[in-house]
Amino acid sequence: MEPERTPKIVGVIWGLLVLNTLGSAGAVTIVPLPRSLIQMVTMGSLVAAFALALVINARLRVRPNAYVFLLTLLLVSSVISSAHLESGFGALFRCFRLTLFVGTLWLLSRWWDGGLTFVRHHIRMYFAVLGSVALGLAISPGAALPDLYGGRLVGALWPLTPPQIGQYAAVIIGLTALLLLGRRIDRTSAAVVIVPSLVLLALTHTRTATLGLLLGLVLAIGSLLMTSSAARRFFTWSVAIAAVAAVGFAGALQAWFLRGQSKDNFSSLTGRAKVWDALLAAPRTTGEKWFGVGLGDKSFGGLPIDNSWLAVYNEQGLIGVSLVAAFIVVLGGVALLRPPSLQRACAIFLISYCAIASYTEAGLGDASPYLLHLALAVSLLAAPAEAPALGTPAVPRPRVPRWAQRSEVR
């Protein structure tokens, strides 16, 4: 019996989840979009994703997995902390959003079979998002490279910040490079994705995304070195090219990396460290320490926290931090225990990227692209569904003549 095929509508549902996690805050767009309209679109996409997932999985068949189970526990913890309304009624709305997000992942888990189907959906959707960024750059370079962001690339058609664009570009570059390495995509198709994405990543000047891409690829390709000659060749050439670039373009790379900042500003991570120190020094009750103040906008004192662990600590407390750490450790452990494969390499890239980005980006405690990246990693690490075992065919009984059926003793 053949394994169950993934319906095409699943790709639409995954795309709606990506649209929901784009957010509603960012740069000023060419055509002004009211924030209420953007929130209506993003929230509507999540409701539609959940409804479609419920339609195609009406029997509520799910695959048990630790990641979504821990997300469910994080949701329960978030509801408990948000019920006190310290962060206002918006906290309950964010809990409702997280509920639909986690519920949709549960419904989609039925088709997580260790294949590359969801990887292709992921790349297509984020490449479409980057296409809108490139189109905005072509239409209005001034709006796409505003002075407000220091000339860094932003979304001019849909409000996207430089870190968002950098994240999306880095993730699809890494996944496409691994597909090319595994010969699951041809060179022309890979170049169509990788080359423009690299250009957009460079224009964002996003250091976190760049480091996450490089280190994530090193770990992912390293997991294939023992079994893939193509991975060994790629790794060798990459090291050689990186060494030449480090020597020949050291000044340009340093200037790009510093983004015109002073050493003091760079050492404080563009002011992030000051916000982190203030957050950790703020007095907290026992309840706030363990459960947090409820889901909010990932800010403290009006300034962005820009650290997933501190954002979770502020909003979901030590319990939330423990749950987030648990699903990162579980995913990493499962990836290490799997035999070498392309799927495992893609999962390692996604897990390591999210772990690296968590230091300067928030999102591991709420519905976000990072949770979607990790869900993709789970789908890659899932064992294929086993086809039901065929029963032993019945052996036909020999035909017995009627005269033999009669008893010889009368």
Task: Give an account of the 3D structure.
The chain is an all-alpha fold and 410 residues long. 64% of the residues lie in helices and 1% in strands. The chain is built from 18 helices and two strands. A two-stranded antiparallel sheet has the order 1-2. A hairpin with a 2-residue loop joins strand 1 and strand 2. The longest helix has 30 residues, at 308-337. The chain is globular, with a radius of gyration of 25 Å. 41% of the residues are buried. Residues 387-394 have low confidence and may be disordered.
> Whole-number average pLDDT?
87
Strand order of the largest sheet: 1-2
Strand content: under 5%
- Overall 3D geometry? globular
Please count the helical segments: 18
Computed Rg: 25 Å
Distance between the termini: 53 Å
Element pattern in H and E: HHHHHHHHHHHHHHEEHHHH
- Helix amount: 55-70%
Biggest sheet, open or closed, and with what strands and sense?
2 strands, antiparallel
Structural class assignment: mainly alpha
Could you name the ranges where pLDDT drops below 50 across 5 or more consecutive residues?
387-394
Question: What's a quick, concise take on this entry?
Answer:
With 410 residues, this protein is mainly alpha-helical. Helix content is 64%, strand content 1%.
Produce the secondary structure layout.
Layout: H1 9-20, H2 35-56, H3 66-82, H4 90-108, H5 117-139, H6 141-144, H7 162-181, H8 187-204, H9 207-222, H10 229-248, H11 250-258, H12 263-267, H13 272-281, H14 286-291, E1 299-300, E2 303-304, H15 308-337, H16 342-357, H17 369-381, H18 402-405
Antiparallel strand pairs: 1-2
Helix pairs in contact: 1-2, 1-5, 2-4, 3-4, 3-15, 5-7, 7-8, 7-9, 7-16, 9-16, 15-16, 16-17
